[in-house]
Structures are given as structure tokens and as C-alpha cells.
Design goal:
alpha/beta; 7 strands; disordered N terminus; binds S-adenosylmethionine
Length: about 220
């Protein structure tokens, strides 16, 4: 699990983790998604338990799991219309796909991940949480033959490469979580966008829930 959002850290100047901020983030999750909080909490337990033990989660992430990972990912629900199908490319330990699947049971989500150890973890979590709207597929984005309305990702590759992997799987749009380099990445992907008649927009979600807000790059067909 890598650092998802530039400037989203919760460390104090001295480097100590700000645990009270993490407690506030858990409280925020409970207030924002009351119906789904028990499942979010269970996913949190998996991440800081088996996820950490199996090396899928870095030790530094444990005390900022709600703020930087679970809440940060769950808010992307705000950018997705009802009843869509979604492929989460390079899902790793389930981010952003699992928080999204938990707070949006109307979505049908495929977690795509090539590494067996991560796929095993994902299957165990999905079974334990009873997530009927989630399927786990082992594979590389550039090799699988699956499609969905929307293709999400976080921390998988820079946009030019990511688009080559994600756009072929998308019927409608690619929604990539990005940090402060979002605009620069769009510029770097200009050739791919032009060639495929695509347009890119930066949007922010999670106002009042996560600070800073989560930055997304949305790629859609031009005129469509
Ligand atoms: C840095 S991790 C990010 C994991 C997760 N999205 C997150 O934000 O915590 C990148 C993930 O992308 C996966 N990955 C790498 N190449 C891939 C490919 N070609 N297709 C699909 N997933 C890939 C890796 O196995 C890894 O789990």
C-alpha cells in the first residue's frame, strides 16, 4: 500500500502519529456511513491485522488507516452514478474497491489484482464481510478480457501508462485517484487522450469528510 494522496499525512512535525486525528476519522466514517460502519470497521480490522502481518500494509499506515485509506477511498462513491459496474485495477489490499463496495451495495465491483497473496487476502475479506456485490479476479489489466462501466484505480501507475491498461476495460469512464500531480499527469497523457478522442477532468470529492479532499481524474469520450 503506497502513499495515495500528496499532503494527506497525519504525522505531527515531530513525526509522531496524530492518533486523535485518526479517532476523529473513525468517528467521521461512523457519522457519514452509519449503515455501513460495522463492515468498514471489520475491513479496518483486516487491514491492520492480517494485512499488516502478511506485509500488504506498511506499519506506518496502521495509525492512519481510516483517514488516508478507508475514508479517502470511500468518498469516491460521490463521483459514481447508481447501479454501475466497476473494475478496480490493481486493487492490492482492496483500495479503493472494498470501501467503495461497502458504502455502495448498488454497484457491482470486480477487484482485479495479479498477485496471488493479495488475491487470497481479497477473497478472504470478501467472504468474511459477505460482500455479494464483489468479485475478485486474478490477472493483469493488459491481459484480462473483462469490461465494466467504470474503471477505478489508486497508486497503480502514472496516467499515460494507467490509461493504456484501464481504458480498454472501460465502457464509460476511467476514474483514477491521483494527488497533486493530477494536472501534470493529464498533460503527460495528452497523446493517448487525443488519439482515442478522450477528455480528462480533475474533480475533488469528500468535502467535509476528508481533508484534503480526494482528487480524481475522470476520463470520458469526447462528445459522449
Ligand atoms: C502500489 S499498489 C496499490 C494498491 C492499492 N490500489 C492501493 O492503493 O493501496 C499497486 C497494485 O497494482 C498491482 N498491479 C501492478 N501491475 C498491474 C497490472 N498490470 N494490472 C493490474 N494490477 C497491477 C500490484 O500488484 C499492486 O497490488
Amino acid at each position: 500500500m503506497t502513499e495515495p494522496q500528496d499532503g494527506a499525512g497525519v504525522e505531527t512535525d515531530s513525526g509522531a502519529i496524530n492518533v486523535s486525528r485518526e479517532t476523529e476519522s473513525a468517528t467521521m466514517a461512523a457519522a457519514t456511513w452509519p449503515d455501513f460502519y460495522p463492515q468498514l470497521e471489520r475491513f479496518h480490522a483486516w487491514l491492520v491485522g492480517a494485512g499488516l502481518e502478511r506485509g500488504l500494509v506498511g506499519p506506518r499506515e496502521v495509525d492512519r488507516m481510516w483517514e488516508r485509506h478507508i475514508n479517502n477511498c470511500a468518498v469516491i462513491a460521490q463521483a459514481i452514478q447508481p447501479d454501475k459496474t466497476v473494475i478496480d485495477v490493481g486493487s492490492g489490499a482492496g483500495l479503493p474497491g472494498l470501501p467503495l463496495a461497502i458504502v455502495r451495495p448498488d454497484l457491482k465491483i470486480t477487484l482485479l489484482e495479479p498477485l496471488a497473496r493479495r488475491v487470497d487476502f481479497l477473497n478472504e475479506v470478501v467472504a468474511d464481510l459477505g460482500l455479494a456485490n464483489v468479485t475478485v479476479v486474478r490477472g493483469r489489466a493488459e491481459e484480462v478480457k473483462i469490461k465494466a462501466d467504470i474503471v477505478t484505480s489508486r497508486a497503480v501507475a502514472a496516467l499515460p501508462k494507467l490509461l493504456g491498461w484501464s481504458w480498454p476495460l472501460a465502457d464509460q469512464e476511467v476514474l483514477a485517484m491521483k494527488g497533486s500531480q493530477a494536472e501534470a499527469e493529464i498533460e503527460a497523457a495528452a497523446k493517448y487522450l487525443k488519439k482515442n478522442n478522450l477528455q480528462a477532468a480533475v474533480l475533488k470529492v469528500g468535502s467535509g469528510i476528508v481533508e484534503p479532499e480526494t482528487t480524481l481524474v475522470r476520463i470520458t469520450r469526447k462528445n459522449g
